[in-house]
Amino acid sequence: MDCLNVILKRSSKTYTEDEKKALADRKNDIYQNFLRQMTERDCRPGVRSTLDWLKKKGIKIAIGSSSKNTKIILKQLKLDTTFDAIVDGNDITRAKPDPEVFLLAAERLNLFPSHVLVIEDAYSGIQAAKKGGFVSCGLEEAANYYQTDYPLKTIADVILVLSKFNGQKE
Predict the structure, then answer these.
(1) With a threshold of 0.90, does the pTM exceed it?
(2) Residue 168 falls within a domain, yes or no?
(3) What is the per-residue DSSP string for 98-163?
(4) How much of the chain exceeds pLDDT 70, in percent?
(5) Confidence band for 3, pLDDT divided at 50, 70 and 90
(6) At what angle do helices 123-132 and 100-109 cross, to 10 degrees?
(7) Residue 10 belongs to what domain range?
(8) Are 81 and 149 contained in the same domain?
(9) 76-92 b/e with 16+ CB inside 10 Å = b?
(10) Is there a contact between 84 and 109 (Cβ–Cβ < 8 Å)?
(11) Rounded mean pLDDT of 63-90?
(12) What is the mean pLDDT of residues 71-79?
């Protein structure tokens, strides 16, 4: 509904709650159909090879998303068995910029936030990482955000950043 309300702010028409619910249901049906059509070819370049490298090095990896469709997306991309922990909108009550999603992921990995690199493409994710005491890597728009610790040009650049954290223990 939050997403729909953002879209409807651009409309000159006023909608009743029943109309909004019907529109939200329709929007979600379209989105769910889109998700079912995704394949591993829809995975962004460099993601799979970077995740494979991390796994081979024994580095724990988690995904933290506010979306309730994260597991469906990962299954469609054939990444559903890649992560050591998955935290999504079904697990949390507060969205980014609240750090809840990252804190729960760190907890499930049994790691301190200061030993976790959060890779984000949105300002709100970087803000959440900083509030939670995490080190942040920014992709796309977040690469230029002033709170980003390490701007990345590509996802594979995280390999270079990780070399700075090698051997940290608490």
Answers:
(1) no
(2) no
(3) STHHHHHHHHHHT--GGG-EEEESSHHHHHHHHHHT-EEEE-GGGGG-TT-SEE-SSGGGHHHHHT
(4) 96
(5) confident
(6) 60
(7) 2-37
(8) yes
(9) bbebeebbbbbbbeebb
(10) yes
(11) 95
(12) 96
